[in-house]
Amino acid sequence: MRRRDLLAATAVLSAVAPAALAEDAPAAGQSLSMPGVGLPIISGGRLRNYVFVSLRLHLGGSATPETMRAKEAYLRDALVRAGHRTPFVVADDWTRIDPVALSASLIRSATTIAGRGSVTRVEIVSQAPRRRTGVQTG
């Protein structure tokens, strides 16, 4: 009889313990992936290259991946428009995007589109240039 009680108690504790640990642990940050956004590299008034970036948006506040997925097209559009208006160019390299400028622009756009605090951080997962050559002098 004692062995049955011990096994039953172990089964109950193993079922309850993960739920108790999950309540104590902070909620993991939610994120949304945006693959394949093509951004222009414009220098000297000329189109020099395109860089295709994959982004991960870290969400905050009441934003969830489901609500932000509906707004992803608007975020893409705002990012491409900003990339044409003020290109995210690294001065000495036409094969990379300036991550700080891109992040600041996308967070400003996300504030307008999805609300304040909806995107807390933008992470550039990958950058793939169309042409693999850098700055050409002359």
Tag the structure with descriptive keywords:
single chain; 138 residues; alpha+beta; Tetrahydropterin Synthase, Chain A; three-stranded antiparallel sheet; two-stranded antiparallel sheet; 5 strands; elongated; signal
Task: Report on the architecture of this protein.
By secondary structure, the protein is α+β, with helices and mostly antiparallel strands. It has one domain: Tetrahydropterin Synthase, Chain A. The chain has four helices and five strands. It has a three-stranded antiparallel β-sheet with strand order 1-2-5. A two-stranded antiparallel ribbon has the order 3-4. Strand 1 and strand 2 (46-59) form a beta hairpin.
Q: Quote the beta fraction.
A: 25-35%
Number of strands: 5
Tertiary shape: elongated
**Tell me about the biggest sheet?**
3 strands, antiparallel
CATH class: Alpha Beta
Order of helices and strands: HEEHHEEHE
> Stretches where pLDDT falls below 50 for ≥5 residues?
15-27
At CATH's second level, what is the architecture? Answer: 2-Layer Sandwich
Please estimate the helix content: 40-55%
- Helix-strand category: alpha+beta
Please work out how many helical segments DSSP would assign: 4
Strand order of the largest sheet: 1-2-5
Distance between the termini: 90 Å
- For this structure, the CATH topology is Tetrahydropterin Synthase, Chain A
Number of domains: 1
Instruction: State Rg.
Output: 23 Å
* Mean pLDDT across all amino acids: 81
Keywords: Signal
Signal peptide: 1-22
